[in-house]
Design the sequence.
């Protein structure tokens, strides 16, 4: 049973910064990739940033110059540093862990943390 626990969300003014944390119940190196998704009311879930076990990163175009995903393997934690936040960044942010195992795909999700950016 994989558990992902998120923290760091909150209310911030436009232009401000937040850092989200996602701590896994096991070694994050056991996952092929970990990432952050977000979902605003009435919108589909979208990938924000991801990092593979090899350290490759991927970002949505809308956040690529402002957000940074990183990991701390001994702490089994993945971070999302969010700078220059905009009101359109307001959403529930979810941590995701992905694994390919014996030809099958597995996705695990955190509970979500609310990020609200005021004008």
Sequence:
């Amino acid at each position: 049973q994989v558990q992902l626990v998120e923290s760091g969300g909150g209310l911030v003014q436009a232009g401000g910064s937040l850092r989200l944390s996602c701590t896994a119940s096991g070694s994050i190196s056991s996952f092929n990739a970990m990432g952050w998704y977000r979902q605003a009311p009435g919108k589909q879930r979208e990938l924000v940033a991801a990092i593979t076990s090899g350290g490759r990163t991927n970002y949505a175009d809308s956040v690529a110059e402002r957000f940074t995903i990183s990991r701390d393997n001994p702490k089994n934690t993945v971070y999302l540093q969010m700078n220059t936040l905009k009101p359109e960044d307001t959403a529930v942010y979810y941590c995701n862990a992905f694994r390919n195992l014996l030809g099958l795909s597995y996705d695990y999700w955190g509970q979500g943390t609310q990020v609200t950016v005021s004008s």
DSSP finds no helices and eleven strands in the chain. The CA atoms of residues 74 and 119 lie 37 Å apart.
